[in-house]
UniProtKB/TrEMBL annotation:
Segments crossing the lipid bilayer: 21-41, 61-79, 91-114, 120-139, 146-165
Entries under Pfam families matching the protein: DUF7134 (PF23539), HisKA_3 (PF07730)
Domain annotation DUF7134: ranges: 65-163
Taxonomic classification: Bacteria, Bacillati, Actinomycetota, Actinomycetes, Streptosporangiales
MF (Gene Ontology): kinase activity
Enzyme Commission identifier(s): 2.7.13.3
Key words of the record: ATP-binding, Kinase, Membrane, Nucleotide-binding, Phosphoprotein, Transferase, Transmembrane, Transmembrane helix, Two-component regulatory system
Signal transduction histidine kinase subgroup 3 dimerisation and phosphoacceptor domain sequence ranges: 200-264
Gene3D superfamilies: 1.20.5.1930, Histidine kinase-like ATPase, C-terminal domain
Protein name: histidine kinase
Catalyzed reactions: ATP + protein L-histidine = ADP + protein N-phospho-L-histidine
Length: 399
């Protein structure tokens, strides 16, 4: 338990103590004020027989009993939260005989309506309304008819019960709003976490797409230099140049990715269909023998072109990893209204891939499938006839 919890508990206990003391003093003030107004005698219309007359004047005996009952009734209000129903019923019955306890009875009815269900409160109110007639019989008002006295007593009890029910429903409403606020805060936190998770996935896809292509070039050429140390100096220099340029470009791509993470929405540098030719030329420079065919007319939408670029990039990266030196064909065809078809087809590799290339985890195709799905397209991949591998995707191209 931390310090704030202890402080809150102390504050709540102090508040309850102050409220209980206020209710006790209020009921006691009512009893004292009423005792000064009532005549010090037995209830009007009730005469004690000779055999029932206690020692001393009857008025003194009954007045003392009434004051004691009123004090005990006021004192019992300290336990109104623990036994609200029992206390309210008891005080309703006691106030029939001893009017000085009516103040405590009204407070008990109010507390009952606040802390218990409306059905229970109305049931006790029915008991109070029934005893109002008995009270009017025992304590008739010389200035008002009995019916008016009964109706006035019922109206006062009803007003107190109604006030308590209003407080009860208000507390339920506040609690419900508090629960809704907590629930909404939890949902907002979950949505934020989900959004962060999606952002992380998008970042992982972007880093894989951008850096995977460059790093695969480095891996292929570094592996060739490692396993062919007797290669001609011109070939070694050419491979070293490619490694240097690819490493430099990888650094540039990494800076762009970091810039993407820092840039506002709408300012993200992304590749387009116009960059496909350069991508194919870079792959062709490292001996992949890539044939490129563009068979479409019109302007490809930006999102579709960006997805097509990533498909070709992932396809060429996989060719270098798993089928180095294989003949590869990249074909892009389509038209507005028909869609755009992107196909990367490679034949069997003339030589086994270097061990430095690794077997791959398949996460590139998983991320690519998700990217195509987000673009409302379809992705197909698998072994091609006669050996090799085929990667094909259809992307929507609205009119």
């Amino acid at each position: 338990m931390n310090a704030s919890t202890v402080t809150g508990a102390q504050r709540c206990s102090a508040r309850d103590w102050i409220v209980d003391l206020s209710m006790f003093l209020l009921a006691l003030a009512y009893a004292v004020t009423t005792s000064l107004e009532l005549p010090g005698a037995s209830p009007p219309g009730v005469e004690f027989g000779p055999e029932l007359v206690p020692p001393g004047p009857p008025s003194t005996w009954f007045e003392g009993a009434g004051r004691l009952a009123a004090f005990l009734a006021c004192l019992s209000l300290w336990w109104r939260r623990r036994w609200p129903v029992q206390l309210a019923v008891a005080l309703v019955l006691v106030s029939v005989v001893f009017p000085l306890a009516m103040g405590a009875m009204l407070i008990a009815l109010f507390s009952l309506a606040v802390h218990r269900s409306p059905r229970t409160s109305l049931a006790v109110f029915g008991v109070g309304a029934a005893t109002a007639y008995l009270h009017a019989v025992l304590w008739p008002d010389p200035h008002l008819p009995m019916l008016v006295t009964v109706l006035l007593s019922v109206a006062i009890q009803g007003a107190v019960i109604g006030w308590g029910l209003t407080v009860h429903h208000r507390r339920e409403l506040v609690e419900s709003l508090r629960d809704r606020a907590v629930h909404a805060e939890t949902e907002a936190q979950l949505r934020a976490e989900h959004a962060q998770h999606q952002v992380r996935e998008a970042m992982a896809r972007e880093i894989h797409d951008v850096l995977g292509h460059r790093l695969s070039l480095l891996s292929v050429h570094a592996g060739a230099l490692e396993y062919r140390p007797d290669a001609p100096s011109e070939e070694v220099a050419r491979s070293a140049k490619v490694i240097r340029e690819s490493a430099h470009q990888a650094l540039q791509d990494l800076r762009e990715v970091i810039g993407v993470l820092r840039a506002p929405v709408g300012e993200l540098p992304q590749p387009t269909m116009a960059d496909l030719q350069q991508l194919v030329e870079e792959a062709d420079e490292v001996g992949a023998r890539v044939e490129f065919a563009e068979e479409y007319t019109g302007t490809v939408p930006e999102r579709t072109g960006r997805t097509a670029y990533r498909i070709v990039q992932e396809g060429l990266t996989n060719v270098r990893k798993h089928s180095p030196g294989a003949d590869t064909r990249v074909r892009v065809r389509g038209a507005p209204g028909e869609g755009l078809v992107v196909e990367v087809l490679n034949g069997p590799s003339p030589e086994p891939p270097p061990p430095t290339a690794g077997g791959g985890s398949g996460q590139g195709l998983v991320g690519l499938a998700e990217r195509v799905s987000l673009a409302s397209g379809r992705l197909e991949h698998g072994p091609a006839a006669g050996g090799g591998w085929r990667l094909s995707a259809w992307l929507p191209w609205p009119v």
